[in-house]
Amino acid sequence: MLNYIIRRMLYAIPILIGVNLITFTLFFVVNTPDDMARMQLGIKRVTPEAIEKWKHERGYDKPLMLNDGEEGAAKFTHTIFFEKSAAMFAFDFGRADDGRDIAHEIKSRMLPSLAIALPVFLLGLLAYITFALVMAFFRATYVDFWGVVLCVALMSISSLFYIIGGQFLISKLWHLVPISGYGGGLDASKFLVLPVIIGVISGAGASTRWYRTIFLEEMSKDYVRTARAKGLPESIVLFRHVLRNAMIPILTGAVVVIPLLFLGSLIAESFFGIPGLGSYTIDAINSQDFAVVRAMVFLGSLLYIIGLILTDISYTLVDPRIRLE
Amino acid sequence: MSMLFKPVILWTDALIYLLVLVVLAFVWYVRRNEHMLAPWRRVGHSASGMAALTVLVFFIAIGLLDTVHFRPAVENSGNSEQVYSVEVLSLLDVIAEPLRTRVEKTYSAPFAAHLYARETIELPDGGQVREFPRLQFGGAHLQNPDVELVADVTERAAVGAAQGFLGWCVLVVLLGALLARQDNAGLLPTLFAIRRGATEVPWNAVLLTLVLILSLLGAALALSTHYHIFGTDKVGQDVFYQSLKSIRTGLVIGTLTTLMMLPFALLLGIMAGYFRGWVDDVIQYIYTTLSSIPGVLLIAAAVLMMQVYMETHPELFDTIAARADLRLLFLCIILGVTSWTGLCRLLRGETLKLREMEYIQAAHAFGVSHWRIISRHILPNVMHIVLIATVMDFSGLVLAEAVLSYVGVGVDPSMISFGTMINAARLEMAREPMVWWALLSAFGFMFALVLSANLFADAVQDAFNPRVRTWSLKAGKLRRTERTKTPESKPVAAAAKDSNPP
């Protein structure tokens, strides 16, 4: 097992290097640091000195991939590519344009992100499985039919509508919870209720329909027919046999997003004014803070790869038929 | 001889024309092959699918009208050389001329005759009053709006809807006559058969959808010449016009993105599955790496870089429309590059299966070249996967556009789209009384488009994937069918949504 995990983690290294190469190409090759400096400082009326200063402050004043002015290994190490990549792998993301340390900022913003993403994830999973199970139990009746219709309708509504509509209805019309904001400790809960509810609802359509499919697929298998033939009541067939087996694809499918929960969500956080990583990313995009966006891309990929490894491990844990090779 | 206009073909226009050609060629090809026609017949038998298609046809028609661009001539005094306006217009702009040009001062509610905000008005005797001024165009024909407005709106709506209904009746008779001729039956029995739902294609569902659309359209058209039926926005532009213009942007993103990603996905997916070995390893490495970057972040980073590139290369475009269009094209390319991996993985898996089939082994034995095997035997047999992925992706992409435009990495702010409409309107949420109309019409149009796309996608998937069968409601009785959707048929465009739990 340990052997497998180690090997699986080693596979992640070339992928991370590839991710790094892509982000580097995006941020430094498509547009040279000079272009970015000009863009940030204003296209017109910018002196070469100002550009040099901007580049020097960020450590962009070196050759991109190959430093001809140096000898030996320094030819490769004294370049933007090597220095930025090495720092990235050591979780040193440098400083944002406002001078703050990005790594520190990420650390302090992870908790608020998690405070909304984790409840959405857990409550959502519970709610979707329940509804899907109800629909599967009443399959081929009007409950099932209208359930699917409702799912398709929910899927077709923009996630922005859920947020704006929810804020209007619950906060503005009924004054139940504040529209947006965030507080420390228990105080945070009153700010979190609305985003969590909206998060669960906006994901409902696609997931419920997806889980229903899994349940129905499971119900068409031979062992279910055998269980029914034995004379077991439908409820026991459903809960004891179908549910347990259907949980394998559902849970292993959900594992991959667990690490990504740290990243929070872009839209909800900025709408509700929650100081998490999602709103941090949006602010960085809007103020064109390249260093922050690059850091977030790297972090996101890292978390996703961790998610993939966890998925593989969870498969082997829940399904004894899968052997590690 | 000077022309009244100068045709303009923007980048996305050219690609849309190409797409239309491809679709027409595909239709022509399918019609000649019975085995390819069969699944489309099954799509034709789905009531929800055909009703959705009817709605989609209207959206596509509006989108196509909005694609034919030109620059009108500017009236010039005596100069021999004809000058053309820098403003790029489309056929839709010409048809909707009254909507486009009748701009009010600022916000006004739907069907309002007065402006949304009070203004100080100078009286003839020198005094001042603060009141809601009359709109310049909306309801301007009314003497006393407070009294006449409701009656006038009702009357116009009724007349418009009745005209729409009449048009529908003509269509029904035409369709009935056509079907009657086909089946050698009388007109009346055919019409009754349509009503009962006894026809092969569920014409009753199509006609029901049509009567709704045509009466609504008739009423909307009759009213929109005298009112702003969805109100006006901050700069006084008609929201109905903006909603119509947004349709093209949504359709372009939904279709061109797929057009962009198809070459990558097809070529690499089939190559990986067919050649295996190191080719497979390299391609797998590429798509694993690309797909491990969360979609939204990759899109954001790429769009950010594109913005810098466009700022520093102003020579690429000459008008504002061309600039906005170029940005839309880049957005499609970026979305395509980030979303081809899912389809590529599916195609690789299917090709791996296909290459072991006996007919392909036989082709090998006969010495048929790789290229020929791929194009003659493998490509036609994976097309259903491509088709399903294309229709499934469409709605996700339309929804993603709104989100991306909100984040600030979507279309150009000068381009009218659902995203920019929502973005502009959401800032007015805090106003009292609320400005809700722009938001609601953007969401409403988007919902209609995405819902019909989803329903149509379901019908296509049911028909093309024999393993997958969804619910169907026929003749009032539920027919039980099991839906077995394999994990790999998850929509590909979820990329943008997946990494972004709302």
SSE layout and pairing:
The complex is a heterodimer of chains A (325) and B (502).
Chain A: H1 2-29, H2 33-41, H3 48-58, H4 74-77, H5 80-89, H6 102-137, H7 142-155, H8 159-173, H9 188-202, H10 204-219, H11 222-229, H12 234-255, H13 266-272, H14 277-286, H15 290-318
Chain B: E1 5-8, H1 11-31, H2 34-45, H3 47-65, E2 69-74, E3 83-84, E4 89-90, H4 91-95, H5 97-101, E5 119-122, E6 128-131, H6 145-183, H7 187-196, H8 203-224, H9 239-275, H10 277-291, H11 295-312, H12 320-354, H13 358-365, H14 370-407, H15 418-426, H16 437-464, E7 472-474, E8 477-479, H17 494-498
Antiparallel strand pairs in B: 1-2, 2-3, 2-4, 5-6, 7-8
What are the key terms here?
heterodimer; A: 325 residues; mainly alpha; 0% strand; B: 502 residues; four-stranded antiparallel β-sheet; 8 strands
